[in-house]
Design a protein that fits this description.
Helix content: 10-25%
Order of helices and strands: HEHEHHEEEEEEEEEH
Distance between the termini: 30 Å
Length: 181
């Protein structure tokens, strides 16, 4: 199936279960709420990323496929959704996928060492309107689009390590497994 579909298991994702996995999820209706969490967790730097065909051009499809490869990071991954929607999938206690829908105002912190992946959602398709004899593209928030703030403790860095047996021996993965396992 399409990686952007809901893949709804029929059971809601309980924030307590996410917490058990080391995942922090918060609804932050304002930047001041994000600033408070950033100060509390010692995030010093931030930038913004827009994932869309308009901003990424011909590289868009390949980038989205790359984000969807199962991987981990040696640092926390922190995202605050400024606009649009998407999914983070994380590995659960039984190594099952847990799908987390994020939309504007959601903040997520993935711990270092957790296997995860990201994709935009199925509703992110271009909308077309027919007005008389004219076709026009509706510029709406439902177009393969997510805008997120990335927060970092140190200098901005985003290095994905694709899942492989040798990653089980990395310090970030070993620490994650010992803490959450």
């Amino acid at each position: 199936g399409d990686q952007r579909e809901d893949h709804d298991s029929g059971r809601p994702v309980d924030p307590a279960y996410l917490s058990k996995l080391g995942v922090l999820y918060r609804r932050c209706p304002s930047i001041s709420a994000v600033d408070a969490i950033a100060a509390q967790r010692s995030y010093k730097n931030r930038d913004e990323i827009i994932v869309s065909p308009e901003t990424m051009g011909p590289a868009y499809d390949e980038k989205v496929k790359m984000f969807f490869n199962e991987h981990l990071h040696e640092d926390e991954e922190i995202r605050y959704v400024l606009d649009g929607e998407g999914f983070f999938d994380v590995r659960g206690v039984q190594d099952e996928w847990v799908r987390i829908r994020l939309e504007k105002g959601d903040l997520i912190v993935l711990p270092a060492g957790i296997y995860h992946r990201f994709t935009t959602d199925i509703h992110n398709v271009s909308a077309v309107a027919i007005c008389g004899s004219h076709l026009s593209l509706l510029m709406s928030r439902t177009k393969k689009y997510i805008k997120a703030m990335r927060l970092f403790k140190d200098e901005p860095k985003w290095t994905p390590l694709n899942r492989a047996p040798e990653l089980e021996k990395t310090p970030a993965r070993k620490e994650y497994v010992s803490r959450e396992g």
